Fold these 2 entries.
Entry 1:
Amino acid sequence: MTPGSDDPLDAGHAAGLVVDADGTILRCTPAAESLLRRSARDLHGLRVRDLLADPASWRTVLEQRDGPVWEGRAELAPDGGGEVQFRVLPLADGRQGHPSQFLVLGAPHTLVSQWRQGHAFMRELFLQDRIGLAVLDKELRLVRTNTHLLPYTGVPSELYGARLGDFLWESDARVIDARLREVLATGVPLVAVDVEVHTRLDPGAGRIMALSAFRLQGADGLVMGVTALFVDVTEQRLSRRRLDLLHRATTVLSTNLSAEETSRDLTDVLVPGLADVAAVDVAEAVFTCEEPAPEHHRDHSLRRAAVAGASPGWLEAGTAIEVDSGGALSGRMWSRIADERPRGVSSPGGPRTSGRDGVTADPLEPVASPHGMSAWLRARGLLLGRIQVGRGDDRPPFDDEDLALLEEIASRAALVMDNARRYARERNAAVSLQRNLLPSPTTDTVAVHTASVYLPTDTATGVSGDWFDVIPLSSARVALVVGDVVGHGLQATATMARLRTAVRTLADLDLEPDELLTHLDDLVSQFVTEAGEATRTPGAETAYGSFGATCLYMTYDPVTRRCLVASAGHPPPALLAPGGGAEYVDLSPGPPLGVGGLPFEPVEVEVEDGSVLALYTDGLIEHGRADLDQGMAALRHALSAALAPGRPLEDVGPEVVRGLVPGPLSDDVTLLLATARGIPARSTAAWTFAADPSVVAEARARVLSQLSQWDLDELAFTTELVASELITNAIRYAGGPVGLRLIRAASLICEVSDSSGTQPRMRRAHATEEGGRGLFLIAQLTERWGSRYTRSGKTIWTEQTLPQR
C-alpha cells in the first residue's frame, strides 16, 4: 500500500477485529490474520491486551480514548505486527445503553503516517498560489486544478473537463500538449522546461512558465493521466535576458574604438533584444576628434551614427541632428513614442518639470514612455550622444527595469565613445606627426620620378618606424632610402626621425652607401648605449624601448646610369627593366643597424632609362606569410602585373599594396617606386688635363666652346671663371691629372676632380694677401657649390641656374 492510495485505516483495507466490552476478540478479518500473524481460530477468545508487547500498558492505551470513536497507538509483540495505529468504532446493538461490541481497525503506524503525510502534501499543493497544478486524464482533459493554473483569471472549477486550448492561445496549448503527450507515452518526467503562455481572456504580454510533468499510474500499473506543474518564472527569465543583453552590449562595446562601428554593433544588439527600433546619435565632436560640449550647454549637434529596425520617419544613419530645447524624444521617434512621452521632457539646456508635482528634474535624465525610451551618453561631464529605442504594439510596454538597463548600456557606451574620440585624436596626431616626418609622396627630379605608398599599422598607436626618403645629391644624382625601426608607437617614430635626419646629414657629405651605413650603424649603437643608461634610472624603463633598425641606401647617377646600393639587414630592391619582368638586385645584406663590427658590401647595378626601382619595408612581404621568399615572389609578380607601359607610378603603388595587404595591418607598409631617367650623352662633356698651369687656358677654351654648342653663352663668363679657378687650385694643391666635366641638366653643373683627399675650405682673405679669394668668388657667382670624396680623390662641383627661355 502506498501513501497515495486509500486511507490504511479504512474498513476496506485495515486489519479488523470485533471485540466485546471486555476486549475479548470475537471475530477478525483476513487482514487481521496477516497483520497479527495468527489464524482466526487462534485469535478467537483472546483478549486484546494479550496482543500487546507489554500487557501492563493496556491502561495507557485506554487513556487515549477521547470519544465514542477514537484513535490511538499501541506496541504489539514483534511477531504480532510491531507498532500499530488503530481506530475504535462502537457497533450498534439495537438496545439502549452502551454498545456491547466494538470494531477495531488497525494498520502499521509507519504506513498510516506516510499516507497522512502524502495526503497533507497533496492538499497543501493544490492550495499553493505560486505553483500552477493541473491533473489531466489520458485525453489531456483537466481533472483537477488549483487556484493559479497558468495566468487564468477565472474559477478553477469552471475548467473541469476542459482542454488547455479552451483557455490558452492555440499555439501555446499545442506546444504544451505535445510535451505532455510525450510524458504520457514515455513515462520520462519533464523538469522545468520554459514555455510561453497567453490566455484568451487576458492575453497581454503573456507569461513564461517553467513546466514540469510526470505520469500518473494506478496500483495495477495502468496509465491514468499526467500531472503538470507550472511555475511563473517570467521575472527571472526577463532578468536573465536583460543580463544577457547587457553582456552582449558590453562585448560589442569592447570590440573596437570606432564610434560608427560601435554604434552599428550596439543597435544590432538592442534590436530585437530590447526593442523593435533603435538609433544611436553621436556628437559631431566625436567624429572630428574635438572636445564635445559640456552637459549644461544648451544646443548640441549630433549625427545619427546607426539605425536598426524599420520605422517610418526615422532618419538614416549619417544625418545631422540639431538637439535643442524642443525635446529629447522629438518627432523623429515613432508617433507613439512622441505622443506618449512624459509631460515636461526636454533636452539639454531646458528644465524638465514633472507633471505631477512640478519639481524641476535633471534635463539629461533618461526618458521613458510605454513605447519608447531615450538615454543620454555622458562621460567626464561631456555630452557624447544618446540612445533611443522603441517598441510596437505587439510587444509589452517598457518598464522601469528596461529603463535601468538602457541607462547602464548608455553609461558604458559613453565611456567607449569618449575613449574612441580620445584614441582617434591621439592616433591622428601620431599619424600626422609621422607623415610630416616623411617626404612628399611624389617627387620629380632630373634623375628620377618617384611615387610612394605609406600605410600606418592598425595597432593601438597607429604609428611605427617605417620611413623612406628621396635625397637630391650633387651632380644631378639622387639617393633613395627606405628603413624600418623595430617596434611601434611614438618611441619608434622618434627613433625614425633621428635616423632620417642622420641619413640626410650624412648624404649631404656625398658618402658612398657602405660608408654612410657604417656611420649610421655607429649612431644606432650610441642610441642603444643611451637607452641602457636611461633604463637604469628608476621609472625610465617605459620611456625607452629596444633599439634596432634596418636600412637600404641607394644612389643613382643619371650620367653613368649606375646605381650603387648597400643594405643594413633590409630586403633587396626590385628592378623592373622596360619591357621586362621584375628581378631583385643580387645584394648581400649586412647586419641590422646597431649590431656593429661587420662591414656593409656595396653593389653596383646598371639601370636602363625608364627602369623602375622598387624599395619597400618588410610589412609588404610578411603580411600573413610565414615564408619570406613567398612574400618576395608575390611582390615581384604584383609589380610585373601592375607596371604596364605608360601607366603612372601613382596608380601602380596603391594597386600593388592592395593586392598584397588586403586586411588589417600588423606592421607599417611602405613602398617607394622610382622611374630612372638618364641624362643624354649630348648633355655632358668631360676632359682630363695634366697637372700643368698651361692647360688652364685650354680648359677655358673648351668650356666656352661647349657652352656655345648648348646655346648657354649667357653663362660663359661665370663658368669660364669657375673652371679656371678650380683647375688652377687642383694643379697647385693636388697635382696629378685633373678632370673637368660639364653637365646640362636642371642646372649647369661644373665638376673638377683631382687625386687629393683634402677638402677645400672657403675663407675670407686679408687685403694684403694675393690669393685665397677663389672659393669665395665661386660661392658668390654660383647657385650652390660643394665637394665630395671619391674613390680616387675628391670632386668639387658647382651649380648655376639655367637661363629662362
Entry 2:
Amino acid sequence: MESLPIDERLFEPGSFIIREGDFPREILILMSGFCIRHKISKDGYRQIVGINIPGDIINLQNLCLDESDHNVQMLTRSIAAAVSKDKVRILLNSRVAIGAAFLAASLVESSIYREWILNNGRRDSRTRIGHLLCELAVRLEVGGMGSGQAYDLPMTQEQLGDAVGITAVHVNRSLKALARDGLINQVGRRISFPNWNRLKDEVGFNARYLYVRPPSQWSSQTLS
C-alpha cells in the first residue's frame, strides 16, 4: 500500500468525508484521529453504526460497491490517506496475500456489526455502554493507542447514545452506575478500568468477535 500514490488530507472535527449517496473514487485509510459511520432516519435521528480508529480502512465496501449507503464524519481533527480505487484493485489482483487481508478486514467489520446488533437489541443501557467501552479499550490497545488500562474517550455522551440507541441522559446515568459499582473510573474524557475481569463478565464482553490477539501486558486481566 505504501508504494501507491497517496494523498494525505486533513479533516476538522465534525466534517463529513463521505455522505450517503456519494460515489467515492478513492479508498480512505484513517492515519490519525477518529471518525464515525452513521445513518439518519426519516425523522432526523442519527444512528452511529461504526467507529473507526487509526489504521482502519474507512470505506472498504466502496472497492466493490460504488455508491455509499451511509455517512462518514470526523469525531476529531484527523488525517486520512486517499488512494485511487483503481490502483488498489490492481494491487489486490496482483498480490494474493494483500487481497486476502482486505477480505479478512471486511469479514471482521461484519463480525463487529453482528455484535453491535446484539448489544443494542438485547442488552440494557448500562451493559450497552460498558460493552462499547470494553471494545474501544481492546481496539485502541491493539492499535497502540491506549495503555489497555486507560484511554481518552473520543466521543461525547450524545455520540455514545447515538451508537447504542439511548439518550444522552441515559448514557450519563449508565456511566455513573458503572463508576458507582467500581467497574470504571472517569475523569473528564479519561476512562480507566479498576477491575477489567469483573467489568467484562458483567457486560458479557468477549473479544472473540474482534479477531485480535491482546498484548501480553494484559495477561493478568485478559481481554479475551
